[in-house]
Amino acid sequence: MKKINKLLLLCLSLSIVLISCNDDKKHKKGIRDYKENKVSSKRPSNAITYKEMASMFHEYDTGQKLVLDKYRENYTGDANDAVETVSHFYEINQLKQYIKYLERISKEKEIKLTGVRIFSAAYPKNYSNKSLRGRHTLIFMPTAKIGEKNNVAFEPLYSTNNNPIKFTEFLHKYSSKETQRVSRASMIPFFQGDLEDMDSSGTNRLETNPPN
Known about the structure:
Elements: H1 2-33, H2 50-61, H3 64-76, E1 87-89, H4 92-108, E2 115-122, E3 136-146, E4 149-153, H5 168-171, H6 177-180, E5 207-209
Antiparallel strand pairs: 1-5, 2-3, 3-4
């Protein structure tokens, strides 16, 4: 009986060791997944095929787009302005400049830039360009490691050395309650005009289609 118990104890110990090793491998693999990709002129690993692209466009065109076009028509009250924005254009040198800018101001704060997070937003009702009012747009924000996450949007302009601060710390000074409840954040609403404005590291100013 003692021999059987010892054998069972040995098997149990080996099982625990094997499980621990497996978990450790998984954990290390997770860490490797966050390693910075090397930049080269090769086709990137996240490039897609035209079949994949077509299936994604189909899903959007038969789902979200129908809802957004209907919203656009109700928003404008104009059947001739009832198609929501379907694409955004970013001039290549502006995009390169933005990345270089983020790299510089992040390096000055000794913060490792991990990427760019892209948020959905919409131009406010009082936007200077009337043709863009209510239209979907995108806001770009730099990301860094905060806590255990490597892709948290932060504000390098107001972060301190080695201490990235989430951009929502500043955005929410101007945000509505609705925006504050959304984890990805949204446009700064126009009705917070009594507060002095602040520069951000975010970018927008995209050419949209429609209307362009």
